[in-house]
C-alpha cells in the first residue's frame, strides 16, 4: 500500500518561499494570484495493512514539526 | 571539565567547537551520531553547526532522531548542560529540549557575516562572562535562522529572562530579534550565531571566547 503525506506550514506562519513564488508569478504577468503557500508531499511505500495511526505517529515524530507545520494523510 | 561534541554526517563546525572548548581548558571527546551512549563523566554536550544529514526533510530533524540524540535528550531532561550552535540550535528545537522552531530566513538568502548581538541576560553559565546589555560581535552563517514561537512561548521567554542574545540588526526575521534562548533550568542554550568562530585572534574577533572560558571555568569548579 502507499500513502501520501501532505505537510504545510500552519496558517499564520509566514511562508517567505510561498511569498517569493507569488511575487514571481505576478512579475510574469499572472494577475490575481493573491497568495501562495508552499509545502511538501511525502510518498510512503508501506507494508499492506499499516494503519493510519502508525502513519500519524510517523508524522508526529518525524515527517512534520507540529510546532510550525500541519499534515494530512491520504492512503492511496 | 569534560565536553562531548556530537558529530553528524554533514556537521562542519564540530572541530571548531572542540577547539574553542580546548582553548578554554576543557577536555573534549568527539561522539559519533550512531553511538547510543555518552562518554562517562561528561559535563556538557556541544551540538555543532553544519548541515546534518544534508538538511533533508527539515534542518536538524533527522539528527534529532539519531541514536545519540536519544542520549542527548535524556541528558538534557535530567538537568545536564547542552550547547547547540546554529544547526545545533535547530536540532535542540527538533528534540523539544528548547521551544519554538527555526524557519527559512525572511529574506530567503543564506546570511554569512559578522552580526552584532546584545547580551540579554548574564544569568547563565554561558553568559556569566558578559553583562546584560553588552554588544558583542559574533559571526552568523545560516539559511534557516528565523526563530518562531507562539505568543505564549515568547512571553514566557521574556518573563523568565530566557533570551540569551538579541540581534542588534535582525538578519533573518527572527521574532523578538531572538538570536539565542535558554531552557527553563538555564542549562540548555541554543543560538544561531557562532561563538566558536570568534574565539581566537586569528578569527578576527574573540567575543565568543568569553562564553567558553566562563562556561568551562564554572563547570570545572562545579
Determine the strand fraction of chain B and express it as a percent band.
25-35%
Cα radius of gyration of chain A in angstroms? 16 Å
* Shape field of chain A: elongated
How many domains, in number, for the residues of chain A? 1
Category from helices, strands and their pairing of chain A: alpha+beta
- Strand content of chain A is 25-35%
Can you walk me through this structure?
The complex is a heterodimer of chains A (76) and B (222). Chain A starts with a strand and ends with a strand. The longest helix of chain A is centred in the N-terminal third of the chain and has 12 residues, at 16-27. In chain A, 32% of the residues lie in helices and 28% in strands. Chain A contains 2 helices and 3 strands, in the order βαβαβ. Chain A has a single domain (2-75), classed as Mth169, Chain: A (2-Layer Sandwich), CATH 3.30.1280. The model of chain A has no long low-confidence stretch (mean pLDDT 95). A 3-stranded antiparallel sheet of chain A has the order 2-1-3, covered by helices on one side. Chain A has 76 residues and is α+β, with helices and mostly antiparallel strands. Chain B has a single domain, classed as Rossmann fold, CATH 3.40.50.880. Chain B is 25% helix and 26% strand. Chain B contains 6 helices and 11 strands. Chain B has helices spanning 14-23, 61-64, 67-77, 87-95, 151-159, 209-221, and strands spanning 2-7, 27-32, 44-47, 81-85, 101-103, 111-119, 135-142, 146-148, 163-167, 178-182, 188-191. In chain B, β1 (2-7), α1 (14-23) and β2 (27-32) form a beta-alpha-beta unit.
Keywords:
heterodimer, A: 76 residues, alpha+beta, Mth169, Chain: A, three-stranded antiparallel sheet, 2 helices, 32% helix, B: 222 residues, alpha/beta, Rossmann fold, nine-stranded mixed sheet, two-stranded antiparallel ribbon, 11 strands, globular
Short description:
The complex is a heterodimer of chains A (76) and B (222). With 76 residues, chain A is of the alpha+beta class.
Amino acid at each position: 500500500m502507499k500513502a501520501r503525506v501532505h505537510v504545510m506550514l500552519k496558517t499564520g506562519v509566514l511562508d517567505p518561499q510561498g511569498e517569493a513564488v507569488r511575487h514571481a508569478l505576478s512579475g510574469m504577468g499572472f494577475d490575481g494570484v493573491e497568495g501562495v503557500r508552499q509545502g511538501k508531499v511525502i510518498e510512503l511505500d508501506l507494508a499492506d495493512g499499516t494503519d493510519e495511526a502508525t502513519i500519524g505517529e510517523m508524522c508526529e515524530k518525524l515527517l512534520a514539526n507540529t510546532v510550525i507545520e500541519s499534515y494530512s494523510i491520504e492512503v492511496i | 571539565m569534560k565536553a562531548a561534541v556530537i558529530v553528524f554526517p554533514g556537521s562542519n563546525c564540530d572541530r571548531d567547537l572542540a577547539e574553542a572548548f580546548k582553548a578554554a581548558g576543557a577536555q573534549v571527546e568527539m561522539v559519533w551520531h550512531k553511538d547510543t551512549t555518552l562518554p562517562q563523566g561528561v559535563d556538557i554536550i556541544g551540538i555543532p553547526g553544519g548541515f546534518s544529514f544534508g538538511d533533508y526533510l527539515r534542518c536538524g530533524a533527522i539528527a534529532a532522531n539519531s541514536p545519540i540524540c536519544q542520549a542527548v535528550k535524556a541528558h538534557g531532561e535530567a538537568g545536564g548542560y547542552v550547547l547547540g550552535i546554529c544547526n545545533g540550535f535547530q536540532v535542540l528545537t527538533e528534540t523539544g529540549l528548547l521551544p519554538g522552531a527555526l524557519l527559512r530566513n525572511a529574506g530567503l538568502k543564506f546570511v554569512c557575516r559578522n552580526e552584532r548581538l546584545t547580551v540579554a541576560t548574564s544569568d547563565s553559565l554561558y553568559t556569566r562572562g558578559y553583562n546584560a546589555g553588552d554588544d558583542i560581535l559574533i559571526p552568523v552563517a545560516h539559511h534557516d535562522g528565523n526563530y518562531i514561537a507562539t505568543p505564549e512561548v515568547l512571553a514566557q521567554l521574556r518573563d523568565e529572562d530566557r533570551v540569551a542574545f538579541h540581534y542588534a540588526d535582525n538578519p533573518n526575521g527572527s521574532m523578538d530579534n531572538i538570536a539565542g534562548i535558554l531552557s527553563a533550568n538555564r542549562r540548555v542554550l541554543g543560538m544561531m550565531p557562532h561563538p566558536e568562530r570568534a574565539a581566537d585572534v586569528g578569527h578576527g574577533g574573540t567575543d565568543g571566547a568569553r562564553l567558553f572560558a566562563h562556561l568551562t571555568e564554572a563547570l570545572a569548579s562545579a
